[in-house]
């Protein structure tokens, strides 16, 4: 009889599990043993979903919205998303048929890649990157090509780097602004310069805008698809409700794409998952139909995040051997730990074992000189975690 391993497909043999979830589960296991863990690993807001969103979902559930709905999403939600993209993102001329609601933004990303990339195609991914992009590209049978953009360039790929990485096999480039893991934001003019290259070379762009509303220091978000018709014709915009409204467990992602791509995405989804949970979509609809309540919820979350961001940033920069950029988006900081003379995996595991502080090693994001800390955690955890981290680093040498 063949061994279990031998029965796996080449796809399965090649895929690695998400390292961010791995750290989180190790920290949770220690916590469950009663250990006092300071967790900076979380990839989700630590707030509850706003009440008005939960209520709309509850009402839908009670009203019997418990059946399948159209695979690409509730018609009302797709139409509300068109309005949102026109109102908040300055996109124009979108038809609701170009909008697909999926079970999570992660799945929206995967569908966008599957619908456009296959064997022989190359996908350009700026590093530090979100852990799942290269794996999704490999699952589609295509080849990830990473470009490194370190803290010396604000973690941002330059137009020249992009142009030089493009080959005749390049199909797609992935942008994620604000970024997970770095929190970096491309300014509107930086986005415009990259989009110019995309148009000039006639490749596709997947713009992952899941953190579009989580901005600090007055930073501005620009959706590439809003720049021009040429830009919109080449851009797949992915976003969702998880990060904006603390709805990670609801599993609701969104995608806007040129008509043929949106249609292919909807077809793949109809054959693989069908619709995102029907009654959950009514909660998302409430979020879009009540922009004032939505804005109040986002603003109160942002005010808290912003204070923690500065506290953590200052604390990290006060530690010898650590330097940290002032990230202006999402809820992550991505300090450079090269000065400590350890690779990120050894650093993170030693830190967790000795000081019960959970961070995510940078290597999973393609950047071994760094670690990711999420400040979607309490002030107490940040204070205590910084104390322990300072202590740990002081005793390293
Ligand atoms: C969280 C996240 C997503 C999607 O999250 P879902 O929970 O699947 O909606 C997509 N891209 C990035 C970069 C993320 O951090």
From TrEMBL:
Transmembrane segments: none
Keyword list, A-Z: Aminotransferase, Pyridoxal phosphate, Transferase
Matches recorded under PROSITE patterns: AA_TRANSFER_CLASS_1
EC number per UniProt: 2.6.1.-
Cofactor entry: pyridoxal 5'-phosphate
Domain Aminotransferase class I/classII large: residue ranges: 36-389
GO molecular function: pyridoxal phosphate binding; transaminase activity
Pfam families in the record: Aminotran_1_2 (PF00155)
Swiss-Prot/TrEMBL GO biological process terms: amino acid metabolic process
CDD domains attached to this UniProt entry: AAT_like
PANTHER family: ASPARTATE AMINOTRANSFERASE
Family of this protein: Belongs to the class-I pyridoxal-phosphate-dependent aminotransferase family.
Protein's UniProt name: Aminotransferase
């Amino acid at each position: 009889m063949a061994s279990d391993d031998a029965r796996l497909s080449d796809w399965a043999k090649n895929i690695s599990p998400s390292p961010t979830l791995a750290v989180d589960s190790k920290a949770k296991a220690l916590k469950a043993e009663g250990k006092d863990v300071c967790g900076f690993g979380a990839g989700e807001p630590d707030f509850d979903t706003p009440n008005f969103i939960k209520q709309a979902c509850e009402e839908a559930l009670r009203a019997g919205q418990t059946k399948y709905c159209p695979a690409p999403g509730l018609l009302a939600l797709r139409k509300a998303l068109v309005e949102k993209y026109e109102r908040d993102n300055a996109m124009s001329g979108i038809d609701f048929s170009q909008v697909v609601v999926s079970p999570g933004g992660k799945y929206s990303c995967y569908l966008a890649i599957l619908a456009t990339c296959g064997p022989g195609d190359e996908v350009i991914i700026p590093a530090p990157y979100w852990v799942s992009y290269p794996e999704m590209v490999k699952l589609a049978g295509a080849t990830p090509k990473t470009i490194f953009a370190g803290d010396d360039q604000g973690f941002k790929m330059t137009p020249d780097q992009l142009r030089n990485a493009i080959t005749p096999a390049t199909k797609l480039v992935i942008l994620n602004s604000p970024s997970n893991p770095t929190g970096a934001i491309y300014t509107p003019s930086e986005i415009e310069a990259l989009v110019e290259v995309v148009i000039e070379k006639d490749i596709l762009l997947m713009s992952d805008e899941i953190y579009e509303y989580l901005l600090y220091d007055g930073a501005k978000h620009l959706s590439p698809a809003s720049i021009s018709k040429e830009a919109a014709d080449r851009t797949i915009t992915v976003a969702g409700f998880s990060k904006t409204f603390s709805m990670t467990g609801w599993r609701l992602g969104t995608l806007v794409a040129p008509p043929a791509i949106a249609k292919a995405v909807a077809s793949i989804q109809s054959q693989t998952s069908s619709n995102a949970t029907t009654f959950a979509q009514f909660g998302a609809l409430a979020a879009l139909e009540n922009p004032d309540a939505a804005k109040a919820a986002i603003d109160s979350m942002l005010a808290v995040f912003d204070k923690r961001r500065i506290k953590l940033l200052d604390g990290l920069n006060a530690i010898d051997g650590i330097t940290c950029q002032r990230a202006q988006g999402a809820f992550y900081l991505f300090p450079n730990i090269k000065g400590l003379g350890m690779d990120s995996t050894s650093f993170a595991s030693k830190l967790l074992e000795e000081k019960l502080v959970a961070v995510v090693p940078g290597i999973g994001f393609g950047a071994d000189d760094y670690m990711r800390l999420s400040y979607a955690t309490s002030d107490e955890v940040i204070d205590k975690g910084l104390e322990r981290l300072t202590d740990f680093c002081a005793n390293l040498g």
